[in-house]
Amino acid sequence: MPHIAIISASVRTGRVSHRVALYFSNFLKEKNLATSEILDLNAYQFPLFEERLKYQPNPSPGVIDFATRIKKADGVIIVTPEYNGGYPAALKNVIDLLYDEWHRKPIAISTVSDGSFGGTQVITSLQFTLWKIRAWTVPAMFPVPHGPKTFEADGRLVETSMEKRAVNFVNELLWCIAAKQKMENP
């Protein structure tokens, strides 16, 4: 069974995107599709980094822990809010922190906003950054419009029409994980 790291990218108080991270964690478990863990950037509280992990003389235990969890994951779901058309600095910070850990890692992107576009403006810039570090971005995306009206604080889905999209999104990630494993172990 594959293992998926879910990055909850917001560090704001009252963050709505964390609800979506909780949803995917529960979804994967309930459907018995994968094991998962949420890597909550709010819990890590990383300082701004001056250098990539591999060049840091004395990386903190939190940095080592995060890097190890990304490396061990078969795939990653990034759940990010949209801040003024972009993604949070905390997410950019951890993407730039690592390099080898992202190489050919299947990554699925979920964006969240209070508005009707669901954070879709974030997708292009985040995808470009992930391509530059040689990650494998999954073609399926999961934008969430009207986040507070779509998910409860505990991650339960309010808008049930989103379930079909979630199935397609997760299946695409799982397909990419399986394809990568076949390519690496023919």
TrEMBL record:
GO molecular function, one term: FMN binding
Domain NADPH-dependent FMN reductase-like intervals: 3-147
Pfam families: FMN_red (PF03358)
Top-level taxon in the UniProt lineage: Bacteria
Entry GO terms, CC: cytosol
UniProt name for this protein: NAD(P)H-dependent oxidoreductase
Source species: Chryseosolibacter histidini
